Amino acid sequence: MQLYLPIAEVSINLFLLLGLGGLVGVLSGMFGVGGGFLLTPLLIFIGIPPAVAVATQAPQITGLSLSGALAHLRRRTVDVRMGCVLLAGGIVGSAIGVDIFRRLSEIGQIELMVTLSYVIFLGIIGSLMFVESLQALRRTQRNQPVRRRKRHGWVHGLPLKMRFRTSNLYISAIPPFGVGLFVGILAAIMGVGGGFIMVPAMIYLLGMPTAVVIGTSLFQIMFVTAFTTVMHATQNYTVDTLLALILLLGGVVGAQIGAQIAVKLRAEQVRILLAGLVLVVCLKLAYDLVVMPADLYTITSA
């Protein structure tokens, strides 16, 4: 069944879009990521203009993050206080990112910027996560004692300390705010919830337990992407409502399934699966940057 999307100005198969939304929903529930790092490239691959793909991700990620966050709230695996600090930084970062997005769109460089950002960040984060998770998994299989991450580092020496009881942490609010700020910028420019950056940062930088990280990440992503949706819709006019609703329908169902799967996996397995997925998407985008396109020139209307 073909469906015409007015803002994107393309015709796309309805069941394909539902399937993509469902796949990303499962990833959201499993890994605590919004799923935009995967869905945005996939939408570009099937013909959605990059500017529309990025902006339309925000409302879809909002909905499936809400679905996943509710599932984790019922299990009490969400640190609400930590989520609020991350959210404060995320709102500021999102406003900055939308302005950068608008300026890049005006000079015609948004597609290159989006793709390069994905390749760089996915490559770095995916590689670091894969190596660390593989080492942890091997130690577990050999019954070797797992080396605990340092609970006290430079983060604990900063001012403005807060107690996060759910995460069993007493650290400065500055690093969580900074992480949220950075992720907010990425959410606006790259069309992602930022979970692929936030989840590793919460585990390795802030020292949060993996069981709490996933739900807290979804809690923060939910609000940041909602704000990003409003900003893109009112400033850039690139949100395709029909496309977002279709993706959201599949995503909400998938998020519940993913949350159930996550409970049955060990922390090391969750991290290594996420790292592998991140690297696959990174390699595909990098390949598309260097391969010669079928059409070297495209004529567009002014």
Automatic annotation (TrEMBL):
GO terms for cellular component: plasma membrane. It comes from Pontivivens ytuae. It holds the Pfam family TauE. It is found in: Cell membrane; Membrane. This is Probable membrane transporter protein. Keywords: Cell membrane, Membrane, Transmembrane, Transmembrane helix. The chain crosses the membrane at residues 12-31, 37-58, 78-98, 110-131, 169-197, 203-230, 242-263, 269-287. InterPro entries: TM_pro_TauE-like (IPR002781), TSUP/Inactive_protease-like (IPR051598). Belongs to the 4-toluene sulfonate uptake permease (TSUP) (TC 2.A.102) family. It is a multi-pass membrane protein.
